């Protein structure tokens, strides 16, 4: 994240990472690429090739996905305990099985291009506020710490977040969320806070009761053009110049979103029986600044210690000011009234702001449950398994098409050509995973590498012969024969 200047105005900008996921639907890719082939016979062969690639890749992953689903059935938070009891396994054997499940799960997450949220990304995400304005924390006493701690001890990774021993947040894809509203309470809150800050500064109490927060890295400034493909602006009320004039006008705020979020954790055991259930929850379109809404086992928010200190300090300062005014030879009632009004107003503002934020928090939690949460448990795993297959198929099809149409290429050249194709034909920018695509093509035996390091593909008809007739094609042909009879 950095600040950029445009037309003399400083803007808060977040740099977005170019990801490997291909968002375009597989059917659209096949249709578009086949239409680029001139010969109709080749188009038919290409469509057949695409189907055989998908059937073959699906078969490759079938056993791995079956193992994943069978293992999860033992750790399903709802029915897993019953199945574990039927297996008569020892605690040590269960420990091995749950670590095997996590190993399979993390492999699938990696294949689906999900990445673990790092501390740096958490800092950027929580550096501002969007719709959630309450400090949300996790009740760590309700979350198990041994499951993930053991996994990462056996499978160390770089840039793990501080909470990785308790829960893991995976993210994929970046979007933008915009909200347009009057934001009356939020604007009034900011205006009153600004007035109060000036008052505290005037009486030199700002250093004592000023807000403190976690130290963050200094944000650099960039005076250059910003590419829309790599950066997105974060528009917040806190950075706007608010006044009583624009208090009654609608305002649009903007925040980058994580298109997909998956949270993995296990609850701590409250009784003698150890809870073996592993929770896997899937969310969509979560604003970065509101990432806290996906946290597991959240504590009920309340006034922070700093709010209470400010609240009490305001009352004490007001009381001292009133007593001092009354002890003067000529007490000015208007001054006393102004002081009392300011103190009472600020205290009321603190309480009403908390109540408004609490209502907004409850609304966001409800929304996340009914609108933002896509699935959980088995449904999430099934979605991930299918997602892996779809991504792998799209990578293989695109790489083969580029080699077929544009000729030999090195790995680096093929990578660039595939990214150019996605950008020109589908308007998508991504970091194409050329190594994985070539590995699959070599496994299918439809590409060859010459001594100079360049890859070339076989002809379409030959590629279909090499892959051969798949089981799915036999079943479909038998089904068609049955219908004809």
UniProtKB/TrEMBL annotation:
Q: Which UniProt keywords apply?
A: Membrane, Transmembrane, Transmembrane helix
Translocase recorded as keyword: no
Membrane-crossing residues? 308-326, 333-352
UniProt superkingdom = Eukaryota
Name this protein carries in UniProt? UPF0496 protein
Taxonomic lineage from the root: Eukaryota, Viridiplantae, Streptophyta, Embryophyta, Tracheophyta
């Amino acid at each position: 994240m950095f600040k950029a200047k445009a037309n003399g105005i400083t803007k808060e900008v977040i740099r977005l990472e170019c990801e490997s996921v291909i968002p375009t639907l597989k059917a659209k890719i096949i249709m578009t690429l086949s239409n680029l082939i001139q010969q109709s016979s080749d188009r038919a062969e290409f469509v057949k090739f695409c189907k055989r690639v998908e059937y073959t890749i699906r078969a490759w992953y079938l056993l791995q996905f079956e193992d994943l689903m069978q293992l999860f059935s033992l750790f399903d938070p709802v029915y897993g305990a019953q199945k574990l009891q039927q297996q008569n396994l020892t605690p040590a054997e269960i420990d091995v099985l749950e670590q095997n499940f996590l190993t399979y799960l993390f492999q699938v997450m990696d294949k689906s291009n999900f990445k673990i949220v790092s501390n740096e990304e958490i800092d950027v995400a929580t550096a501002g506020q969007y719709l959630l304005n309450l400090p949300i924390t996790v009740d760590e006493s309700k979350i198990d710490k041994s499951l993930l701690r053991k996994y990462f001890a056996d499978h160390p990774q770089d840039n793990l977040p501080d909470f990785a021993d308790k829960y893991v947040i995976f993210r994929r894809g970046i979007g933008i969320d915009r909200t347009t509203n009057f934001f009356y309470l939020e604007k009034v809150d900011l205006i009153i806070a600004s007035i109060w800050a000036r008052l505290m500064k005037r009486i030199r109490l700002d250093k004592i009761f000023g807000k403190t927060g976690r130290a963050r890295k200094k944000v650099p400034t960039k005076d250059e053009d910003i590419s829309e493909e790599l950066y997105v602006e974060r528009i917040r009320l806190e950075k706007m110049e608010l006044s009583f004039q624009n208090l009654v006008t609608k305002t649009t705020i903007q925040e980058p979103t994580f298109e997909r979020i998956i949270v993995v954790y296990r609850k701590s055991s409250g009784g003698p029986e150890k809870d073996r259930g592993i929770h896997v929850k899937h969310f969509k379109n979560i604003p970065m600044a509101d990432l806290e809404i996906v946290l597991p086992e959240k504590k009920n928010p309340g006034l922070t210690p700093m709010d209470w200190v400010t609240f009490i300090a305001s009352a004490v300062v007001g009381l001292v000011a009133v007593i001092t005014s009354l002890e003067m030879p000529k007490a000015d009632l208007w001054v006393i009234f102004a002081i009392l009004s300011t103190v009472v107003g600020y205290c009321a503002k603190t309480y009403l702001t908390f109540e408004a934020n609490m209502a907004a928090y409850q609304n966001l939690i409800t929304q996340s449950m009914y609108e933002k949460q896509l699935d959980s448990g088995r449904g999430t795993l099934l979605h991930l398994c299918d997602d892996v297959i779809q991504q792998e198929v799209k990578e293989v099809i695109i790489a083969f098409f580029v080699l077929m149409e544009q000729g030999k290429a090195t790995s680096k050249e093929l990578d660039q050509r595939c990214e150019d194709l996605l950008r020109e034909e589908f308007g998508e920018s991504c970091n194409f995973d050329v190594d994985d695509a070539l590995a699959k093509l070599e496994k299918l035996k439809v590409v060859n590498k010459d001594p100079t390091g360049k890859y070339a593909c076989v002809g379409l008809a030959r590629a279909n012969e090499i892959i051969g007739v798949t089981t799915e094609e036999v079943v479909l042909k038998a089904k068609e024969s049955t219908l004809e009879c």
